[in-house]
Amino acid sequence: MIWAIIGGMTLILFFNRYLFLEPRLPIRLNRGVKEFLGFAVPGMLTAICGPIIFVKDHGVDLSPGNPYLLAGLCTIGVMLWSRNVLLSVALSAALFYLFRWWL
């Protein structure tokens, strides 16, 4: 039963992507839908990363001893400074492990 669910979700995901990536299919989105979908990725990342960064022990943790918060702030700074995604990911991961070990 689990394999059937995994297979079904794989097919749903594949066809969901295929409809938008296949250039021969006659699906065209208007400007408003494209702008709306542009907010999907930042919204999803915020929903995933927000609780990881700000919540600890079922409460908000904004202390300077929170390695997730410090690494998140450093990631924002590195991204604004370098505009390089690979450098930002590598450096922020290294800083996160440094903060986690140090604090």
TrEMBL record:
Matching Pfam families: AzlD (PF05437)
Segments traversing the membrane: 36-55, 67-99
Lineage: superkingdom: Bacteria
Keywords per UniProt: Membrane, Transmembrane, Transmembrane helix
Official protein name in the record: Branched-chain amino acid transport protein
Protein species of origin: Pseudomonas psychrophila
